Amino acid sequence: LDGDVIDITEQYKEKEGTLAERRSFRHAIALIYKLPEPIIPRSEPITIDVQAMITNLKPQNIGSKLLFNVTVSNVLKKEKYFNVSTVVYSLYYNGERGKNILIDRYSLKLAKFKKNIRRYEINPQDYIYKLVPFSIVRISVIISTVQGTVLKRMFDLKIKKPTLIIKPMGRAVVGKLFYVDVQLINPLQVTLTNCMFSVQGIRLNGAQHHVKPVKPFGNVIYRFALVFDQAIKETVVFLFTSNELDQVQGQIRIKVDYN
């Protein structure tokens, strides 16, 4: 390939070359440089046997039912058989799979241009214990025929966890007790057990406090007493843990004065 380079565009029948000419050129270059991807013109039709949608899915608070529909539509002009696999599982932020929540596999025989709607309802007790700390749930739908997989659809749902409501009581003064009220609302229809609070801050010891079980849908307020030995601005984090609710936290920025 050493030597001069000339422009041979005008030799093509079309300004950028016909599809056959471009493919021929691409093939020649691929033989030399081993380029992996062939030209696939967008004008060529792509055969699709089926369409699928995940619908009626909305962000949910932890403790609510997970509701969604899977709609499978036959877009061919003839009857067709499909195998459908719907899998729901927890997911980490890095994409690593957590625990399976639901697995549903079924076969469909759809007439031309017909659709099938399958409705799902997952109760809180069926998914809460399978959530990983970030509480992301992935819904994966895979549709296949005897020829192989023809369509995949995925949807990630963030489960909203409750937060602690934190209210300071008065001003923080060096050497004096400073009270903070922390409110927790149990969103579950089960009692929270093995409950514990952790109070964290740069200049605070990581104190831990065991508290009584919280009743279903219970609304409780805990009062904490803090003492600071210098005038600073401190971020204090309150972390609540239980067997049923994993972790719930909240934080407050406190300005401590001398008097």
TrEMBL record:
SUPFAM superfamilies assigned to the protein according to its UniProt record, in alphabetical order: Transglutaminase, two C-terminal domains
Domain of life per record: Eukaryota
One Gene Ontology term of the molecular function aspect: protein-glutamine gamma-glutamyltransferase activity
Organism in which the protein naturally occurs: Leptotrombidium deliense
Keywords associated with the record: Transferase
UniProt-listed PANTHER family: HEMOCYTE PROTEIN-GLUTAMINE GAMMA-GLUTAMYLTRANSFERASE-LIKE PROTEIN, PROTEIN-GLUTAMINE GAMMA-GLUTAMYLTRANSFERASE
Lineage of producing organism: Eukaryota, Metazoa, Ecdysozoa, Arthropoda, Chelicerata
Protein's name in the database: Hemocyte protein-glutamine gamma-glutamyltransferase-like protein
Keyword Transferase found: yes
